[in-house]
């Protein structure tokens, strides 16, 4: 399946990298707004790599302590959910692409 496939191509890696950058930007902005000084990031090993790089590259989080924790997720229990959402995935793709373009324009 698309969501849980570990054999994703370069395009999917680029999408994950962009997602990590967005998560980093939003997390840092929210932490600053709320006065949070410590952030704990939990993700699988691959996404954690993207997130660590994004936090390293982000300029406004230097006063924020970022801790990371790698957590492997078992895919088997999620297969039923993946099958259930499969018909809706086609509708999300265009919407998420539009959201990405909108966020890119904001910067």
**Counting H and I runs of at least 4 residues, what is the number of helices?**
3
Helix content: 55-70%
What overall geometry do the principal axes of the alpha carbons give? globular
Derived structural class:
mainly alpha
Would you tell me the overall average pLDDT? 77
Main beta sheet:
2 strands, parallel
Strand order of the largest sheet: 1-2
Total number of β-strand segments?
A: 2
Sequence stretches where pLDDT stays below 50 over 5 or more residues: 1-8
Radius of gyration: 16 Å
Distance between the terminal alpha carbons, to the nearest Å? 33 Å
Content of β-strand: 5-15%
> Could you spell the SSE succession in H and E letters?
HEHEH
């Amino acid at each position: 399946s698309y969501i849980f496939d570990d054999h994703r191509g370069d395009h999917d890696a680029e999408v994950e990298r962009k997602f990590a950058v967005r998560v980093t930007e939003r997390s840092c902005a929210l932490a600053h707004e709320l006065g949070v000084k410590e952030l704990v990031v939990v993700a699988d090993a691959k996404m954690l790599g993207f997130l660590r790089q994004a936090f390293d590259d982000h300029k406004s989080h230097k006063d924020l302590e970022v801790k990371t924790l790698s957590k492997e997720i078992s895919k088997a229990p999620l297969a039923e959910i993946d099958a259930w959402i499969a018909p809706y995935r086609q509708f999300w793709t265009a919407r998420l692409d539009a959201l990405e373009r909108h966020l890119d324009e904001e910067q």
